[in-house]
Amino acid sequence: MTLQEIPPSLALLGMSRAEMKGALASLDMKPFRAEQMWQWLYQKGTSDVMAMSNLSKSDREQLVRHAHMQRPTVVREQRSLDGTVKWLFAFEDGNKAETVFIPETDRGTLCISSQVGCTLTCTFCHTGTQKLVRNLTAAEIVGQIMAAKDALDDWPEDPTTRCLTNIVLMGMGEPLFNYEHVRHAMLIAMDVKGLAFPRKKITLSTSGHVPNIARCADDLGVNLAISLHAVEDEVRDVLVPLNKRWKIAPLLDACRDYAAKHPRQRVTFEYVMLDGVNDHEHHARLLVRLIQGIPAKVNLIPFNAWEGSGYTRSSPERIARFARIVEQAGYMSPVRTPRGEDILAACGQLKSDSEKQKKSSCS
Ligand code: SAH
Ligand code: SF4
User: Fold this and answer.
1) pTM value surpassing 0.70
2) Quick one: which of 5, 169, 326, 338 could link to 333 by a disulfide (CB 3.0–4.6 Å)?
């Protein structure tokens, strides 16, 4: 490729090492530089080309002229009284998404977004009220992790001292409706020469895209969380409309197959507790019958209210009764403590003001 043919700016973030080699070759750089670039980007966390001291001067100049590797920029940072941090990140085209850091005594979990908005319209979810604007790219998904690490000053030389230890794909969007970009990003997140998160520290949450659950089992093998929320198809059809396409039975079959491929893992079933909708004792009994044989745990999520949702949170007594039945059947059934409620950072509360550009406003 001649210099005239080089695109104005190569986006290096989110590239696999093989892609990086190709991209650097187009700048007349040697293939082994790709390994060094990966190290600078993902292990040391630098995006300042001039600081990449083991690259030659001419290589650095090529990169400054023809490549970029910026992460998303922070538009707003909010800190909850409980230590939770929520960032609103802006991407290159101005679209925005939210990312949340949840510190706990034994871990630090980053909840990342996979889409701006969501195509699905789960009736209890605030994100679901924001129409899908677009999928996030692998660079933007990985970029959220890197920008959060920047803000937390979390690029230690010794990875065992990191404060950000776990990743959950539970932010805005449905990750399995953006599978290729999510797959690409998670391969970089899990690569020991990349961001080096062990696969067991990554959890992907889905509302139930059955064919892509199978792909995820083969390609990634991360922890799987299923937003089940109801045990009868008529109720789930309303709460999680994707259920009209993939019913509870095939969804649970996909979970069985996932568990068979990854026998050391437990599938997490997420179950939002909605007063009078899905929180009766008979729902709990049916739940344990349905998931029989799947190594699993059931996370009970007290509904996080938002204006206009029309739902209310189940009482603590009802949640405790539900949990007891599930536990007596041999499944762990922790009740998730809502985190960051004061800054709307809890499950299902994330939303940005990005809207899909109407054709008329583009022209
Ligand atoms: N789209 C994916 C991941 C993002 S949602 C999914 O649906 O799984 C992350 C979790 O928060 C899901 O289990 C979702 O059902 C739950 N959730 C959404 N809105 C909520 C709310 N208002 N209160 C409690 N949990 C909610
Ligand atoms: Fe989308 Fe998940 Fe919210 Fe459903 S719960 S609308 S799939 S983000």
Assistant:
1) yes
2) 326
Nearest to 71 by CA among 97, 55, 90: 90
238: amino acid identity, one letter: V
For ligand 1, pick from 168, 240, 301 the residue to mutate: most ligand atoms within 8 Å of CB.
301
| Cβ of residue 301 lying under 6 Å from some atom of ligand 1 | yes
Q: Answer yes or no: CATH 3.20.20.70 is held by domain 73-343.
A: yes
Q: Is 122 in the pocket of ligand 2 (CB under 6 A)?
A: yes
Identify residue 82 by its one-letter amino acid code: D
pLDDT tens figures, 324-354: 999 999 999 999 887 887 777 776 676 777 7
Per-residue pLDDT reduced to its tens digit, 101-157: 999 999 999 999 999 999 999 999 988 788 888 999 999 999 999 999 999 999 998
Nearest CA to ligand 1 atom 1: 174
The rounded Å distance from CA 180 to ligand 2 centre is 18
CATH fold of 3-68:
DNA polymerase; domain 1 (1.10.150)
Segments making up each domain of the chain, as ranges:
3-68, 73-343
CA distances from 283 to 139, 229, 272, 289 (A): 41, 10, 12, 10
Instruction: Tell me the two tokens of residue 199.
Output: 């696969």
Query: Of all protein residues, whose CA lies closest to atom 4 belonging to ligand 1?
Result: 170
